[in-house]
Structure formats: structure tokens, C-alpha cells
Write a structure and sequence with these properties.
Keywords: ATP-binding, Nucleotide-binding, Transport
GO molecular function, one term: ATP binding
Organism: Micromonospora sonneratiae
Distance between the termini: 38 Å
Helix content: 25-40%
Order of helices and strands: EEEEHEEEHHHEHEHEEHEHEEHEH
Family: Belongs to the ABC transporter superfamily.
Largest sheet: 6 strands, mixed
Number of domains: 2
Number of helices: 10
Bound molecules: adenosine-5'-triphosphate
Domain ABC transporter: 5-229
Radius of gyration: 24 Å
Strand content: 25-35%
Length: 301
Amino acid sequence: MNLPVQTHGLTKRYGDLTAVDALSLSVRPGEVYGFLGPNGAGKTTTLRMLLGLVRPTAGTATLFGRPVGAAGHLARVGAMIEGPSFYPYLSGRDNLRVLARSAGVRADRVPAVLAQVDLADRAGDRYTTYSLGMKQRLGVAAALLKDPRLLILDEPTNGLDPAGMADMRDLIRRLGATGCTVLLSSHLLGEVQQICDRVGVVARGRLVAESSVAELRGATGLRVVAEPLDLAADRIRTLVGPDRVRLVDGALDVGIGPERAAWLNAELVGAGLAVSELRGQERDLEQVFFELTKGGLAHAG
Ligand SMILES: Nc1ncnc2c1ncn2[C@@H]1O[C@H](COP(=O)(O)OP(=O)(O)OP(=O)(O)O)[C@@H](O)[C@H]1O
């Protein structure tokens, strides 16, 4: 199958600095893929290599099976990288008309993409009067002119206020729901967590994880609160082994899978203990990313 994006050993060196280090990632059809990493991790360089704007030092990249640089490799690929540039004194609509003409796109795409990004009402206003969020959405509109099957967005929520971020998230979700594959980069864990199907985590140019958000988080055990707690701890140690029980903040962390929750509950109740809480524990995603990237991820606003 020709995946929307596939890279093998993609590498970019600038002198002694390896900005992107043997990156192998794959983006599947129809998914919203979050490319997540701290500032300077190599996200923009990677996206620029996918678009043929930066030449890789080593490795390969294909979009829908076409090697970067081959004829038609950007057919039906839309991109917004490092802030869109528009004519400040033209309206949003006229800016898009100029771009449509130079890209050989039919003029009737302009009202269609303006509606898609919720800018139809303000389309006649000059670009300079737009809020940052509107400017970013106009950038997405420009990327949509080609009616892309793959949309590549570099930090689409960067610099936006919370309302602007929410609008951008809605827009990306809507685009994802239409079947368009979206690859977006972000240094904001919260953003990626809310809108992406899968994430690739990059740190110092290397892909350190690639999976669904749920898989990354994983389930690590059960949290149990019961009265009396010390008797519950003794009972559980006997049942599952002493190494698997830890007392944390007035609760017991038990290192067994959530599928054994009902069994454990029955055992504790059968032993005359009052169980007030028993639930599966998920790892804290912040912690997961901190460990993967050794710090440096920012919080969502
Ligand atoms: N043209 C260049 N020449 C030299 N070094 C570069 C060049 N472009 C990028 N770099 C370096 O490569 C590394 C990765 O940069 P890149 O912009 O890809 O990271 P990023 O993850 O997109 O971060 P940010 O979110 O800050 O843009 C950085 O150390 C950067 O300084």
C-alpha cells in the first residue's frame, strides 16, 4: 500500500549537527498524525524534507509512494510551513485568488476553502485586519486550494490564544473527518493528545516513539483504596506477591492488569474489607513524554 507518508532512515546533517537522525516514520491514510517534540527536535527540517525544500543527507521519503522530488510528488499535497506569507493590503479572498491563479487551481475553489476554514464572513477584509488565528486559518485555506489528500501543517497552533487554538483544533478535526490525511507538528502535548489519532515523538532528531496516544499511555496497574488499608495491603501482598504492592498517598498501587480488577475486588470484599475505590491506572502522559524526550515539552495553553 502506498502510504501518505513514509520515510526510511531520513537524515539531515548541518555540519556537525545532526538535525534529523535516521528517521523512519509512516503516516496512514485518513489519520491525523501528530509529530511531537520539543523546540529544535528536527520537526520543521523533517517536514521541509518531505516537501522537497531541504535535501536529505541520507535516507528516503515518499508521499503516496512517490519519492520526494519525482514528478507529481506534491500532487494533492497541501502544506503550511513556518507561517504563510500573504499580501497585507489584499483581502483574504483576493490573496487566495492570486495563489489559485499561480497554482493553476480553478477559481471556484476559493469560496469553497474560505467556507471550510470559517472565513467566508471576513473574506473581503484586508489581511492586515485579521487576528493571528484568522491568518493561520487563511494559511490552511491556501493549503486546501489543491483539494489535497494530504495536508502538512507545521505548528498550526503556534502563538494562538486559547480561542484561536480551539478553532484550529476544530478545523483540523473536521478536515480529518472528511478523509484528508493530516500530518501536523507541535511541541504542545495537549494539542496533539486532543486531535491526533497517532503520534510520532521526536527528540534530538530521533523518533523515540510512534503509536496511538492510548498505547503510549498504556495501563500500568490498579489503584485500590480499602479500609483498613494495612490489612488490605497484607491481603493483596499475599494474593499477588509483595513486590507488586506499593503504598502511595493513602492508596495502594497494585501491579496487575485491569482485567483482574473484579477478581481482586471479590477477594478483598470476601476478606471483610471495605473497598471504596478500585480502578485502572494510566500513566501520566506528561511523564511519558518527559521520559521519552528527557524534558523540554511545553504545556498546552
Ligand atoms: N539551515 C540550517 N542550518 C543549520 N542548522 C539548522 C538549519 N535548520 C535547522 N537547523 C538546526 O537543526 C535543528 C532542528 O531544527 P528544526 O527547526 O527542524 O527543529 P524543530 O523541531 O522544528 O524546532 P522548532 O519547533 O523550534 O522549529 C536545530 O538545532 C536547528 O538549529
